[in-house]
Design a protein that fits this description.
The structure is a homodimer. Chain A is an alpha/beta fold. The first copy, chain A, contains 14 helices and 17 strands.
Chain lengths: 406, 406
């Protein structure tokens, strides 16, 4: 029997306890032995809870119990989670987490500590919730030279964009509704400004390169500027609008990653990823593109991924499970040199001047719109596009990058 | 350094050699050591080939070379492949294969032999080509009680159905074109009659249950009866037509599997799986549905999956990698008791009699069709439906099951 401690008895933490309880038999079969929740660390008490007697408030109890082999860190945030994780690993206890913020910021360091102390730091749940993603990238697509990852990694923004698309509603309205339904937090900044997706693509970029990709080096743009007008044009161009996170290995071995809304052609597999679902395309030099799709968040899916990591630790005994992500900083290439097709929306009055400023691929017409017009550019380097775009001032009303639009 | 032998220098075999060559560095990094092709077994000679000096014709050479630790069986078929695999495993050499026919027929026995001789029998490439599928099911979704698998597992039939849908063409025409393009074999029976998908769903069913599911016990229907008229009605019902393979664990723990064409609602993730691509939905009691999508066949994707297995063997040294598929026969439940919504196409002349014979959900109208009409039933047990359907003789012209249609 292996004793497990759960740090944080919120949504994911209670999910972890539920998965371990409800799927006790499957879990024991896969782990090769019973897994038992020995402690639940939380600031609060839960007197009515069936696990009330497992709830403690002092992390030292867990640290000093030599029988606890595995710790699930599902508190979130960097503060105490970082300290607790470090101490647990230094004590030789493996840590399984859903904490993308901590993994993105200190993953490389924590992996080194785990390695040094003969235990593991696993984080399948930190990207894509319940979708097996990190394990397939690290353990299944092993014969591949991985070239890129492109995904919808944030369920909240995907829900908002899906509603805007289907209902023709404006961003503000849909955000309010999403907050009411609990799909968006009261302070939605981390989601809608792209920070959450940025952390996740930083993690995937680190796994792709084997080196450390700092989230701060990733160009990040959220969805707060997307309007119902943009969706009208997107539909006319045969596209939807999705917040994509992407990471591309360049020919010189450097990596470039970004988070931004994109027009995605309807025939593209990512265009069919709707509502709170996530989808991730992985591109390898032999297999081509494979996609992983499923619930990118939610109590039980996320908890299931944490427990899968716990099972892996149990199966592997005291051997460190390594994903080859070192502390060496990855060489980043300039986002300014990346080429995209751009959709541009501009004031009808300035049509001629605006069209003259870009290599135009085709115009996108929406009959009912008379004040503005839209068009797609030829592929342009980010830096070159930005220069032209800025010059035009308020004659241009918006621009969105395009995926799958030729 | 680990020495690898490749059995069969056809499409997949030459792909395996190519992946090992082109991604030498990645593969060595993941495997922890160099992998070297020591022998290529084939009946033919390949005098112009850069690996000409590795080509041999006698399997005994491989068997007797104690330095060969891993054998890639990519010959296909059951005959010699079965004997060679058995002998290799008995000699303690791990075998990695893309041979779905052999895995479906003798997988359980070969896994037992591998276990008894401290080596592994791996078959990631046998289902879904290059898509990581078997490994995620066995090693990632470990915290789940898996409830069902539903997938598009045959690229040839998916290509044919996609073309029929897009071009309004008839089955025969599209099959001819697919044969010209090399997407369908000259004798297409294994694909178009559903046998290939049946073998694959038998393998997945065995992994789901941990027991042996005999392909012979799986209801199998191909696509040869699908007409352009069916597609006209499918479109009117907001659906596409896909050849699905499914396996469901029943509440009593028994399993029921089938292969048949289905009307699939356009909003369903499997409806977006087109051309030669495969897609597989896995349903777990905690995560809900996750989907794996990608190239289900093809030289390099399939070879990449075989090499991923080779890397796993190399990493694991002499420990057997087990997927928990025993020789004990799985308890099968009757397909006759499974409920589906059915689309029925019948002669306009017999409209009243036919409609009276079924619990009708709604009619599906196609303006330009005057000789026949179509409707959807309420969910009906297979056995009950079949009885009614047969009674009506040639008054009914066709029927297709439905997925996602309420």
């Amino acid at each position: 029997m292996i004793k497990v401690a759960v740090l944080g008895y919120g949504t994911v933490g209670s999910g972890v306890v539920e998965v371990l309880e409800k799927n006790r038999q499957q879990v024991a079969g896969k782990a090769g032995q019973e897994l038992q929740v020995a402690y639940i660390l939380d600031l609060r008490d839960f007197p009515e809870d069936p696990y009330a007697d497992k709830v403690i408030h002092d992390f030292q109890v867990i640290l000093q119990d030599a029988e606890v082999d595995i710790v699930c860190e599902v508190m979130g945030g960097v503060g105490p989670a970082y300290q607790f994780t470090k101490q647990a690993l230094e004590a030789g206890k493996s840590v399984c987490t859903s904490n993308k913020e901590l993994v993105a910021r200190h993953g490389a360091e924590l992996l080194e500590i785990a390695m040094a102390h003969g235990c593991s730091y696993l984080f399948e749940a930190s990207v894509g919730g319940g979708i097996p993603l990190i394990r397939p990238i690290c353990n299944a697509l092993t014969a591949e030279k991985l070239l890129s990852v492109t995904g919808i990694l944030n369920g909240t923004t995907n829900y908002i964009l899906t509603r805007m698309d289907r209902e023709g509603a404006d961003y503000g309205q849909v955000l309010n509704k999403a907050q009411e339904l609990g799909y968006a937090e009261r302070n939605p900044e981390a989601d809608v400004e792209g920070h959450d997706a940025c952390r996740k693509i930083a993690i995937l970029s680190s796994l792709l390169t084997g080196k450390n990709v700092d989230p701060k080096g990733i160009y990040t743009e959220g969805i707060t500027g997307i309007t119902s007008a943009d969706f009208a044009y997107a539909r006319a161009a045969g596209c939807s609008i999705k917040l994509l996170a992407a990471s591309h290995i360049q020919e010189d071995g450097s990596v470039c990653a970004w988070v931004a809304p994109f027009l995605v052609e309807m025939a593209h597999p990512l265009a069919a990823v709707n509502d709170v679902f996530n989808g991730v395309l992985v591109n390898g030099n032999m297999v081509g593109e494979v996609m992983f799709y499923g619930p990118g968040a939610g109590k039980l899916p996320t908890a299931s991924a944490v427990v899968a990591d716990v099972i892996d630790c149990a199966r592997n005994g005291n051997r460190t499970i390594s994903c080859g992500w070192s502390e060496e900083p990855a060489r980043m290439s300039s986002f300014q040199k990346i080429s995209h097709v751009f959709f541009v929306r501009a004031s009808e009055k300035a049509r001629e001047e605006v069209l003259a400023a870009f290599p135009v691929q085709k115009c996108v017409d929406v009959a009912e719109r008379t004040e503005d017009f839209g068009f797609l550019t030829q592929p342009m380097e980010e830096g070159v596009f930005a220069q032209q775009y800025e010059k035009l001032g308020d004659k241009v009303l918006g621009r969105i990058r395009c995926l799958g639009v030729q």
